[in-house]
Amino acid sequence: MTGAYGNTGAVFYLTVLSLVDYSTFFMVIAGTAVIGFVALLYLNEPKGHMAEVNEDGTVELIKVS
Fold first, then answer.
1. Cβ–Cβ < 8 Å for 16, 10
2. 1-49 tens-digit pLDDT
3. Could you give phi then psi for residue 12, rounded to 5 degrees?
4. Sign (positive or negative) of CA dihedral 10, 14, 16, 20
5. Rounded to two decimals, what is the model's pTM?
6. Distance CA 14, CA 47 (A)
7. Per-residue b or e along 40-60, where b marks 16 or more CB atoms closer than 10 Å to that residue's CB
8. Is the dihedral of CA 20, 21, 25, 31 positive or negative?
């Protein structure tokens, strides 16, 4: 989980680790994984078309089914 959140996650999790014991620390990691999974359930997939800007500045529409 620390790698997934980058430097911010590393600082957060190391701070938590310095304040609690190891079993609580792993419960915090599990809790944030569950929160992330629940947030994933609320994401909507794109419908219709998506716009992509190419390197040369042109815009290309991509059909999403």
1. no
2. 556 667 888 888 999 999 999 999 999 999 999 999 999 999 988 788 8
3. -60, -50
4. positive
5. 0.63
6. 40
7. eeeeeeeeeeeeeeeeeeeee
8. negative
Residue 51 CA neighbour count, 13 Å, CB half:
4
The 3-class SS string of the chain reads CHHHHHHHHHHHHHHHHHHCCHHHHHHHHHHHHHHHHHHHHCCCCCCEEEEEECCCCCEEEEEEC
The torsion of the CA quartet 14, 17, 18, 22, rounded to 10 degrees, works out to -150
